[in-house]
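User: Can you predict the 3D structure for this chain?
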Amino acid sequence: MIMQGIDTFESIFQKVFSGEHKYNLCECYTDHGWIKESYESYLHRIYGIAVKLETALADLPAGSWIGIKAANSPYWAALFWALMMRGYRLVIIDNNGNEAFLNNVAENAVISVMICSDMNTPTNVKKLPFAELIASEPADSYQSDRAFADKIALCTSGTTGTPKIFIHTGKQFGAQINNVLARYQESDSLRFLLEDTKKNMFSMFPFHHISALMSIFIYELLHGTMVTTETVNISNVITAIREAGVQIAYSVPMIWESVVRNIIGKYQKADAETFRAVLGDQLGFVIMGAAKANPETLALFDSVGIFSSQAYGMTEIGSLTSNTNRFIDMRTNGSVGTVDSDVYEARIYHDDGTITEEGEGELIVAGDIVFAGRLIGGKEVPAELFMGKYFFTGDHVRIENKSLFVLGRNKDVILNSSGENIYPDELEAFFSEIKAYSDSYVVVGVSEHPVLAAFVPDQEKADAVMRVLNRKNHDLPVFKRLRAAYFTDQPLPATSSGKIKKNAIREYIITGNELFRKAEIKGES
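Assistant: Here is the predicted structure, written as structure tokens:
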């Protein structure tokens, strides 16, 4: 299914709120009961927020970048649309970002204002209260005197206050939406999502995550209902899914594994009757994204009559693919779906520079789904300056009979079990102080966690490196900390051009090669 005419954010907005709407736009489970909004009442809230923004940001010109750093809320999207209506470009920021992270984003995006759930957020940028804006009195109509904005920016998770900030326009999001809708159309098991029937969708992703944004746009375009919880914990998630009659639910695999443990731990069984009693009779589709799904979890959901799937995507390209094969053994074989698409082109890049349609190597992607540019040093840098025809994903994969198998991450990105990206180059910069003792060191991913490998010629220098690591490691968020250091008194393996062979080092560490000796780091957990 290709939805025509969604190539700007304004066109997406217009299509969402056009026509008749049989069901609510959103339903949010809170400690005080349910908040429910129809499409019509939600549109009036958007208008009301836009009116409020005219006064609150009277001196801020259209085209300025504004940051949204807010917890999930049923009215998060209302603020999003109102800001776009006022002509502002939006940087969507992790609500848990620390001071260094926030200031780096503000500097690179030249953010004029940051809208925050927590007004104690440490940043030098002017702040406006999220709660006050979304509480604006609804308005019957609104006529903006500005052009509808068409750019948003999403941040990678970052590690040391240096996130990468990727720009998307309506063209990219329209293509990404159609990429997902085409998969639903082609799947016998999921085509029901496109029918004119009640569709309650639950997403546990925070709204700064591209998966959450995609869910909002897709299901609003399909005139479905977005179900959320004010507080995200397993108990509330289960209650919201059951009471709202959720049919489609998205989250990282870790959350679904917690749901399974919760049910089995409480009822001591994992049969269909128990799962349905806990999760409701309507839940028909569970999708696991942002990290590798456990085949046993996929199979368990399938065994109780809930179609389960794992998806693959990233901030830069949206949801590339998902495994929607109707046979469970084809969904637990490691494949994240097929890359036979009219929306994008996926290829394999080999170390010798050749590009093939199938085989093993780095996944590269071309098409309108690829990000439009980056924000660096206050400037919008076009994507063409970072790549040629293809975007290099950094994933080591195999494509076989059009099926995509993700084998691991390359030197640039580590993906942990919660779906967060960890960038080794940023960690290497964070620990740059050790250059005084080792001019050859790298960070690699081992069992989804970062470790440091370094060439140190003697014990004295190794001790000095450890003092630096022990002192600085605890300053990082827990899941981003180095888990160990590995030292060698031999030069690190490198190519003829001097590039360190990270894959070889990772293999040495995993296999316990005597070339490296392990040193434990304080503050690793």
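The mean pLDDT is 90. The first helix runs from residue 9 to 16.
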